[in-house]
Amino acid sequence: MMNHSHTTQGPSIAPPRAAVTGTVDLDEGKAWSAEGRRHGVAIRCETGTVWITVEGDPEDHVLQAPAVFETHGRGRVAAQALQKSRITVQPN
Prior knowledge:
about 90 residues; 4-stranded antiparallel sheet; 8 strands; about 0% helix; globular; DUF2917; DUF2917 domain-containing protein
């Protein structure tokens, strides 16, 4: 008797929470996110171009190096690389 096993894909597991400060290298199409701090964060696009969205902000933002974007309060912030990019995130 042959044993046929079927592989099913389980639920996707969320990646660990990203650090709120530091430098992040992103390949094209890859994303980074973190829960914003009380006074917000500053995101500097060191190289490349990134798309930024902030929870509660109806507008999205595109940063091209060497631009800086600042959030002003709590809320998840996400960045997605439109091309290979490097961002630096610091608290406000």
